[in-house]
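Cross-check.
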Amino acid sequence: MKTEKVEVPLSSSYRLLHPRLTVLVSCVDKAGKANVITLAWSMPVSINPPIVAISIAPKRYSHQLIEETKEFVINIPTMDIVQETLFCGRRSGRSYDKFKETRLTTLPAKLVKPPIIKECVAHLECKLEEQITVGDHTLFIGRVLTAYTNKGIFDEKFDVKQVKTVYHMGGDDFVTLAPEIFSPQLQEQ
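Predicted model, tokenized:
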């Protein structure tokens, strides 16, 4: 492995943190019409209470919807719907009915108005706690009200032999995990 260091343009430095888990965030307008946005910028920020954060540019339609309704659902897609996942990230809900165009299925969530996406393997229903403007994006911080997965694929972690989660590399490129798990053991000193 080469050890010579080279500069990376600051405009693409965030990609040094990729690949990132890709999620489909569903939200609704005031009338209850559903929309979905593809995001690679999501993360847990607290275990107790369970709180997550997603980052969305203000120009995005979903930004407006989450700001207005104060709810969203983080849905975890798999490589089975990677084409639909890309479509939802490249089209605006202002101009397209992404659910109709992709044939992704909405199902009622348990505790919030935005739907879950049937084709996804896991769902985190969130209530907006706070939003913070950070540079050219808004950090939406949501309390997880309930979370659930398809039966038999998650036991404190995903079964990577069964579930091929989607990771964004940048642009239109995605990868998934190899079904290998490494559990290094620390040597006692």
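The first strand starts at residue 20 and ends at 21. The helical segments are 61-69, 82-90, 98-102. Passed to J.P. for a second look.
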